[in-house]
């Protein structure tokens, strides 16, 4: 179940927080609750992605972009992601989430997020996000002009550009089909 109350509380809290600049890092504090864990008694990978949602909405709220997007009739969507899970987070563990915009290309905005316990990064996420309206994708130059005072993206880090190139090689639609694999030839009894 999506944590709607937790999500709403986070948004209200961030509305009162200090405004952030476009490339500033939003830091939020969280607790891994028992309903966030899986059968291994640690933060569930799916719930991790949901918590990252809260970090992005917190960032956009503090940057005052969330309201501006709504005023334009725009919404955000995730167009791709890659996650590294490196350290366990168990029930009642406290952790810090860090979220920042890295930059954009002609279609997508790239966001980096991490969940930290002390000095250790437990999970790290790279996201490709898009702004959409009723007609589909809103190009980032339009977003920059209307919401970001014409800001220009910094050069994306090498590792992000490498991921973008790798994603461009990935087939779409996927080559997964419902075709059944051929049966192996029958074995001959001796």
Automatic annotation (TrEMBL):
Pfam families per UniProt: 4HBT_2
InterPro entries on file: HotDog_dom_sf, THEM6_lcsJ_thioesterase
Gene3D superfamilies in UniProt: Hotdog Thioesterase
Entry-linked PANTHER family: PROTEIN THEM6 (PTHR12475:SF4), PTHR12475
Protein name: Thioeseterase
């Amino acid at each position: 179940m999506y944590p709607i109350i937790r999500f709403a509380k986070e948004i209200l809290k961030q509305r009162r927080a200090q405004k952030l600049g476009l490339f500033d890092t939003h830091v939020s504090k969280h607790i891994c609750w028992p309903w966030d864990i899986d059968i291994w008694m640690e933060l569930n990978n799916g719930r991790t992605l949901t918590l990252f949602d809260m970090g992005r909405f917190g960032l956009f709220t503090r940057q005052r972009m969330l309201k501006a997007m709504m005023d334009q009739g725009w919404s955000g969507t995730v167009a791709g992601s890659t996650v590294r899970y490196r350290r366990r987070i168990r029930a009642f563990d406290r952790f810090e989430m860090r979220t920042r915009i890295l930059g954009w290309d002609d279609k997508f905005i790239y966001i980096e997020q991490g969940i930290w316990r002390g000095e250790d990064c437990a999970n790290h996420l790279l996201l490709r996000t898009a702004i959409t309206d009723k007609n589909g994708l809103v190009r980032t130059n339009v977003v920059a002009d209307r919401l970001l005072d014409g800001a220009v993206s910094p050069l994306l880090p090498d590792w992000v550009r490498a991921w973008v190139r790798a994603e461009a090689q990935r087939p779409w639609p996927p080559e997964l089909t419902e075709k059944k694999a051929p049966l192996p030839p029958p074995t001959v009894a001796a």
